[in-house]
Please model this.
Amino acid sequence: MREFLEIRDKILESDNIVVVSHVNPDGDAIGSGLALTLGLRKIGKKVRFILQDKYPDNISYLKDLKSIEQYDETKEYDFNLVICVDGATDDRLGATKALLKNRFVINFDHHISNTMYGDLNCVTEISSTSELIYKFLKFCGIEIDIDMAEALYTGLVNDTGNFTHNNVTTETFEMASELKRVGVDNSKIVREFFNTKTLAAIKLLGKAMYDMEYSEEKKLVYYFMSRAELDRFNGRKEDTEGIVERLIALKEAEVSLFLREDKVGVIKGSMRSKHDVDVNEIASIFNGGGHRKAAGFTSELPAEEIIKIVLEKL
Ligand code: 5GP
Ligand code: MN
Model:
């Protein structure tokens, strides 16, 4: 990667570094951020990994999660370099966006919708930010230990759907192979991170699968989950993770749309595409983004309105 040299030099001349990532952090945000944090500490850097939101429970097998701090706006943070991982825009960083002000910003990401908000941007089409960080750590000659390897493997599993998406390349498999050599228990990670669900998550998935709607004309399968439904099962945001991917399993469907009411009047949207439809483009109508085949957004429009707009666009 062309930018690696400049980024490494910048890191080498900085002593106090902060790593940040996006709101509602997923396996790639945490995996890439944690591996980078641990790796830079190995070469003697003081690094803090700061997030707006707490990490999800299903990732608690990762060691050193205590390295992750929750952002506190009343605190003063003393550092000079901030490294953003997996954040397509500075707004996606949530409250931690404030940490970018008047500081040198490095932006490591893999979203096509990235706005290049850093002073140095390393943005490329690759399976995950974890794969990008893996390459960067190797470039710097930093040895990947088992704790970093587990974090990176979690990021890979998260963003490739456990190596099922077409963002997987031979290099992705080579990376997985090397992480396995370091000692990663791939079966444990997939079981705990991917295939273990709370009762609420299973009930909510069932509800969505049972009551989903399908537009034959537009080949869109969609479902809106209201706050009341989430509350009925005591569901948290993370309990709806993966529903959008299950919906698109419908044989005839080309696109899936899952809407979740996060709070009254605020809807989080997730979209997936099977073949040619560019859902990044559709998410951008609502100021969101992501990738061609997986994208998301947050909107204050009513659910019916969002569905209408998406159907019109398809
Ligand atoms: P998910 O649907 O799993 O939340 O996200 C799918 C992809 O879209 C991920 O790569 C994620 O980073 C991106 N994404 C999700 N929500 C948003 C959003 O509100 N804004 C932007 N720019 N990207 C998003
Ligand atoms: Mn990612």
Remarks:
- Residues 28, 86, 110, 128-129, 159 surround manganese (II) ion (ligand 2) (CB under 6 Å).
- The longest strand covers residues 255-263.
- Residues 190 and 287 are 32 Å apart (CA to CA).
- The mean pLDDT is 97.
